[in-house]
Specification:
Strand order of the largest sheet: 5-6-7-10-9-8
Distance between the termini: 79 Å
Number of strands: 18
Radius of gyration: 27 Å
Shape: elongated
Helix content: 25-40%
Structural class: alpha+beta
Number of domains: 3
Number of helices: 12
Length: about 550
């Protein structure tokens, strides 16, 4: 029999008469809370549930009470849905942070509550495959452990170290007692007629394997919602002999980590200890949806369950395909390097700084006058009256592919995954700016956030794109960049705000060198902030 070791609070031996244990009275109390003030209500509910969690009750008495608290949490999280799923930048308002912290604490107390029911029901013994109390409590405990993890993903903070050890224990317990695949009517899943412990476990596992620290703000919640419906396409099976394939993840039921990519023949697999999470059918379905959307089948959007514009749905689906099927790994070794850089975040800010540098360089070339001071020791060259404030960031490490930066909080609200960033050594003002894209965020300290940047180029020219596709002509700040590969230049690229790229779209770009007509030829990448694509010059 599986021995479970779950994190639960110490319980008091003496009952507290102030704690409500009558379901009807508790329901009345919860219904009368001030839901117009979700933060206050979250605090009240957390305090009441924490007190209940420290009382000794039978599973039969405790479970209906905890279910009432769960329904209250569901109401509160629906009230905060926009906050959780919106593309909010890292620097949030104090009220938003307080609200997220309150919801996270309540989710943790609910996790404790359901784990207590599991522990006490196991202690009673006499478990059967149709044990509804054990099934419900395992399913809910897994659900709320997953939500603990999801709140960490949302804030780009490390998940609690105990989460995956307990998730794997609980799933192993469900498998042992034949409860894992039993249908369960779940009022939290509006996409399917019934759920199961296996379905919830897959939903949480696939969210973790989506590399959520590389997702934009609020997108981890959107992926989690998407999997509410489509996790069923992932399959969990016993290991079988045969070659390892893409899209397979090894579940260690006795381990303390999320399922890991099964990409090595050297891994020893135990048919009792291990299971395989196979994403083949899910990846095939995602590929089919991408094809449908790319040919303009808007009807396909309704069944995808991603509340995003069409172009954004395609971008997220491509990302999920990469995460769940190809399982990308680090290509360049990191080397520690503690120093400082200065730079700006955001396409418009980068455009302004590069334009000012170009103007300053042109002025310096025209006026060979030693009396004109254009730089100071240890500072970056900049003209008087600069409008963009450059920030100072700590360089943690670097590789041939990019850097990791440490940014003090509060920071620029533009600092988010998929955003453009430029930086350079503040003592080397003659160096070209390094242009990159933020690929991941991770917050391990309260007062700073780590930012992973992938290099794009050190040759960027500010340009203006004249977009004539609408009723009015728009002038859009953009960057023309040059990328060399094996000492050979690639075709010219343009970086624009997201949504500008359209296949074969013709535009005019203006720079200090004049203006040319171009045709967009191939999209390289699209993030929630920018489009990067190849273009061709139109002769004549």
């Amino acid at each position: 029999m599986t021995q479970i070791k779950l994190t639960i609070p110490t319980r008091n031996d003496l009952p507290d008469p102030r704690i409500e244990t009558r379901p009807t009275e508790l329901r009345r109390f919860l219904e009368q809370l001030p839901y117009t003030d979700p933060i206050k209500t979250c605090g009240i509910v957390s305090e009441e549930l924490a007190a209940l969690n420290r009382q000794r009750l039978t599973p039969q008495v405790r479970l209906p009470l905890v279910e009432l608290y769960r329904q209250t949490f569901r109401k509160l999280i629906q009230l905060q849905s926009r906050l959780l799923r919106a593309g909010i930048a890292v620097r949030q308002s104090r009220k938003a942070n307080e609200s997220l912290a309150a919801l996270s604490r309540l989710a943790r107390e609910l996790s404790f509550a359901f784990k207590i029911v599991v522990t006490d029901r196991m202690a009673e013994g006499g478990i059967r495959s149709a044990d509804r109390i054990l099934q419900a409590s395992i399913l809910r405990a897994i659900k709320f452990l997953g939500l603990e993890q999801l709140f960490s993903f949302h804030s780009y903070a490390p998940a609690s170290s105990h989460v995956w050890g307990e998730l794997n224990q609980l799933y192993a317990l469900a498998l042992e007692h034949g409860l894992a695949d039993n249908a369960y009517i779940d009022d939290e899943n509006s996409s399917l007629p019934s759920s199961s412990i296996t379905h919830i476990y897959k939903q949480i596992a696939l969210t973790a394997r989506s590399d959520p620290y590389h997702l934009g703000n609020g997108e981890a919640w959107k992926v989690y919602d998407f999997l509410d419906r489509w996790a069923e396409l992932g399959k969990i099976t016993r290991p079988a002999k045969g070659p390892r394939k893409n899209g397979q993840f090894l579940i260690d039921l006795e381990g303390t980590s999320a399922p890991q990519p099964l990409n090595s023949e050297a891994v020893e697999i135990d048919s009792d200890r291990h299971r395989i999470l196979d994403t083949h059918d899910l990846a095939q379905w995602i590929d089919d949806q991408i094809r449908e959307l790319e040919v303009g089948n808007r009807a396909a959007e309704a069944g995808i369950h991603l509340e995003l514009p069409t172009q954004e749905i395609v971008r997220v689906l491509r990302y999920l395909m990469l995460s769940w099927w190809h399982c990308p790994t680090r290509q360049h070794e990191r080397r520690e390097r503690l120093s400082w850089v200065e730079g700006v975040c955001g396409l418009n800010s980068a455009h302004e700084v590069l334009k000012e540098d170009a103007e300053l360089a042109a002025e310096s070339h025209l006026h060979k006058d030693d009396s004109i001071e254009i730089s100071t020791s240890g500072a970056m060259r900049r003209p008087t009256g600069i409008r963009v404030q450059q920030e100072r960031w700590r360089l943690i490490n670097h590789s041939t592919g990019g850097v990791a930066l440490s940014v003090r909080l509060p920071c620029n609200p533009a600092m988010r995954v998929g955003q453009l960033i430029i930086f350079r050594n503040p003592a080397s003002s003659q160096e070209n700016w390094l242009l990159g894209v933020i690929r991941w965020l991770s917050q391990e300290q309260e007062d700073e956030i780590n930012v992973g940047v992938q290099y794009l180029s050190d040759h960027a020219k500010p340009v203006i794109v004249r977009d004539t596709s609408g009723d009015t002509v728009r002038s859009i700040a953009a960057l023309e960049i040059e990328i060399r590969q094996a000492d050979r230049p690639l075709p010219p690229q343009l970086v624009t705000p997201h949504g500008i790229y359209q296949p074969q779209k013709e535009s005019v770009i203006k720079s200090g060198d004049g203006q040319i007509r171009i045709r967009a030829s191939k999209l390289i990448e699209a993030t929630s902030s920018l489009d990067r694509f190849y273009f061709e010059r139109i002769k004549g």
